[in-house]
Amino acid sequence: MRENEVRKRAFAMPLTSPAYPPGPYRFVDREYLIITYRTDPAKLRAVVPEPLELDAREALVKYEFIRMPDSNGFGDYTESGQVIPVSFRGRRGGYSHCMFLNDEGPIAGGRELWGFPKKLAQPTLRTEIDTLIGTLDYGPLRVATGTMGYKHHEADLGQVKAALSEPNFLLKIIPHVDGSPRICELVEYHLEQIALKGAWTGPAALSLMPHALAPVADLPVLEIVSAIHIRADLTLGLGRVAHDYLQEPIRRVFRPSERSLAT
Fold it and tell me: What tens digit of pLDDT does each residue of 238-259 get?
């Protein structure tokens, strides 16, 4: 194979049979169970990278179970993980802290293209009589269980669509061949062409169990704030580099107490 052909075909690995195709990546009948809870603020600060900022008043985490039965190039799979509400240069959004799913294509594509923190596991999302149930198993062990009353109240679709349209942030890390970081970037992406089919709220519960390699319980559940069930069609937009950790100095914003100590 000649060099120009290698360059032409070099979209993803393996070269002759990539793990995923080029986009766009359209999702039909995507279904979410999102349970928002309060957690330990010190533990939350320890996992959110600068220059992202946390809300000083609320230490919140969104635990998500997502069912994706029809997605271009990725097929039929389910995902689960934690998203942390943050702000970046005055814009509110969400930082993907950890994600677990059961499909090789979106694991490889998510990590290589955007920087999604994806690992292989076995999540589920299903309706059982009057309850929406989400689970996450890592190997033989259950590490997360979320439940919500099925379609108890309709949610404000305008507010839900606005929330889905907010920017999302990822920490993309690709190592060099010598093990040093080749890419270390804060990536921003958006959900696009959102066709919201319905959204509902209801009572919810969430249980997280400790696990060395799926440490979702490291952000403990102190209080359930809200829960929402969403159905939508949407396109997963490609990203842009919002901050390059290897090129740009961090412009840290000092709190008043810290500023006095620094002078």
Answer: 999 999 999 966 555 444 434 4
| Spatial separation of the C-alpha atoms in residues 125 and 216, rounded to whole Å | 17
- At residue 189, the 3 state secondary structure works out as strand
* Distance, first Cα to last Cα, the chain: 61
CATH classification of 20-244, choosing from 3.40.50.300, 2.40.400.10, 2.60.40.1080, 3.30.70.20? Answer: 2.40.400.10
Instruction: Tell me the per-residue pLDDT of 114-129, one tens digit each, with 9 for 90 and over.
Output: 999 999 999 999 999 9
Residue 259: its H or E element: helix 256-262
Q: Which residues are catalytic?
A: 118
Which run of H or E residues covers position 160? helix 157-164
Model pTM score: 0.91
